[in-house]
Amino acid sequence: MMPLTMLKSGESGKILKIGGQEEVKNFLGKLGFVVGEEVSVVSSQSGNIIVQVKDSRVAVSKVIANKIMI
């Protein structure tokens, strides 16, 4: 298990765990970040990571991405 920030552009993984406070987990869940979902990194630049989750591309900060374990 490793944080989402460890993936390079073009790599993907399955979400195993989401850490953080309950409101952060709920917010990420509404964006499609749920345990068992496949995510892939589109790009990483200037402190943000753009990921493909379900049918959407979402930008998350590295702080939040460190709470998503794959």
TrEMBL record:
For the Ferrous iron transporter FeoA-like domain, which residue ranges apply? 2-70
| Iron recorded as keyword | yes
Keyword Iron in record: yes
Report keywords, A-Z.
Answer: Iron
Transmembrane spans: none
Q: Which InterPro entries match?
A: Fe-transptr_FeoA-like, FeoA-like, FeoA_core_dom, Transcriptional_repressor_C
> What's a Pfam family in this record?
FeoA
Q: What is this protein called?
A: Ferrous iron transport protein A
Protein species of origin: Ohessyouella blattaphilus
